[in-house]
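Changelog excerpt

This revision adds worked examples to the README so contributors can see how folded entries look when concatenated. The first example is reproduced verbatim below.
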Amino acid sequence: MRLPLLLALTLCAAPFAARAADTASLTVTFTGLEPKGAINFVLVNSAEAYADKAAPVAADRIAVTAGTASKTFEGLAPGRYAVKAFHDVNGDGKMGTNPFGIPTEPYGFSNNAKGAMGPPKWDEAAFEVSAGGGVQTISMAQ
């Protein structure tokens, strides 16, 4: 009697174990920081979300107390992602800009992608996260 029950429980749990094995983690590390304020950033998984036309996978704000700061995301689906971030040095919750709209606070993108007259394109900032995990280091030095 126990063997059929054990077999049934094992078969029911198999899809959940497969899903857990197919998830990924991603550690994002920001470097070149002045130890004050916070890093505001979003993790996106599509060109639409990168362009702020769809919801991000995650958005976070982490305090900066040293020259580097990190965040690890667990349970991500393997796939293509990008990160957009700025260092809110003065702690006002928004990116500082000059009268022409040019950022006055440090910012960065995954792959350390650089834009010309605006943010880099999705294809320049996007990277693959495979099952198991990935890392991304973003330099915030201007």
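The second example, added in the same revision:
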Amino acid sequence: MATAPSSTSSVITLTINGEKYTLPVDHRTTLLDALREHLDLTGTKKGCDQGQCGACTVLLDGRRAVSCLQLAVAAEGREVTTIEGVADGDRLHPVQQAFLDLDGYQCGYCTPGQICSALAVIEEHAAGWPSAVTTDVHPEAGPPPLTADEIRERMSGNLCRCGAYVSIVQAVARAAEARATTTTTTSKEAVA
């Protein structure tokens, strides 16, 4: 039963992984705490709680965000995707499968945030967004090659205390290749 809102709390409705959740929250409640403490969606991890490690990365309207710095009330009306919403039923998302196949994790604590960030990185790259290491930033140049340096720079907001970075870079590269292949195949089928 929802409690009546006070001057420092509200009843909000969040859309998370395609489902609507209505809950009372204090206005100071972060999205991370709402996910973990109020909704029992514990895949999103609390790391530094200061927005510096990336363990709590989720997608807000398809863009990555550190949920420890995002207020839950500010996420109302937006589509939140957590690690629990990435797979298609029992079928892992290609990014998840690449992390699994290439050992892109050790302890696994940062992995949900790494995967959510990787999903956004791949889409940002495909859209032609440059990074700090992109040499040609002219829009007509199209997306730069997704080199290891590009991946490292684009994933730099996510820390891995175990040091699985080599495998993480390989996993992101493999998933990006799979996305490019799928997009090319789909485009050819649409033309035919």
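Reviewer comment on example two: The two ends are 54 Å apart (CA to CA). Residues 86 and 92 are 8 Å apart (CA to CA).
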